[in-house]
Design brief:
This protein is an alpha+beta fold. The protein is built from four helices and six strands; from the N terminus they run H-E-E-E-E-H-H-E-E-H. The protein is globular.
Amino acid sequence: MIRSTLVLLLLLTGCAAGQTPGSSPPSPSKGDPVPVTVEKTGGFAGVTEKITIDESGKWTKGQASGRLTVEKSQQLQELAANPKLAAEATQTRPQTQCRDAFEYSVTAGKTTVRYVDCSTDGPLPETASKIVELVNEAIS
């Protein structure tokens, strides 16, 4: 009787964990989609632009709005979930040497990366600049 109870307890414990003996663990999810905002300021004319894309791919830029294609929305969410973006957010960038350069702020969920698009300042943050490029391409 005790042995039967022990076997039953072990089987139930395995079921509670969501696995059966010999099965592989569930694959990790990429996470929930997050809103993404790209802000561009500065330049010779003092530009101020803000593009917001919600979790479903719907975007707004001033009075204009639209929806990203499924492919572009998936690409954007992959970049937003990329751990490199979070690492870029913690990096300190040098003070810019450029005048009239564009400054970008890229926010994906709770992560924000700010940088100046100036070639003499060194390399741009790779993931954040890919997000800017993808968003600008997708909505134009």
